[in-house]
Please model this.
Amino acid sequence: MSGVRIGVLALQGAFREHIAMLKRLNVEAVEVRLAQELDGLDGLIIPGGESTSMGLVAERWGLVEPLRRWVRGGKPTWGTCAGMILLAENATGQKLGGQALIGGLDVTVNRNYFGRQVDSFEADLDVPALGDTPFHAVFIRAPAITAVAEGIETLSTVASLGDETESVIAAVRKGPILATAFHPELTDDLRWHRYFVRVVTEYKSCSG
Ligand code: GLN
Model:
């Protein structure tokens, strides 16, 4: 075991797949549905799915404030796809009134950037933080990051819609917060999960 315990928000979406990836890395992984299940965790993954539904369930179950406290408290958090939308301070093209649901990551996402025209696609992304081999990324009705505040590190980009010579941001990191517009849990490539486990381990050793 790696010695860290990571929760996956299990309200809706692809949480089982994240748990399976973490288990393959010998990491203790648990489903999170209640605020008290955040206690004792070293990291949290907010999966892909549908951000509006996930937000509504989180509100109904009283999880929004505990999740905000978790993220603002500097706890390692990784949002994939819909999870990334929930972490963004600003979102465009969304039903929830443009207001951040959880927030904490100072970026602007376009919630259905790719969703309107191409439901899903795959692309090989250069991700220097993961090494030389490109990462084969699966995008499903995917958002994109259209603006970032100072201090946000871009980990990867993808060709923008309609103009292959331009790109939009597909993965970012700010300290303990990681966000990817695509779904690493739907591939066989464990590198993003390993990367997040490393972030979680580093933060645990700093704060512990
Ligand atoms: N665009 C979707 C949303 O608004 C996210 C899609 C996904 O997570 N695969 O929630």
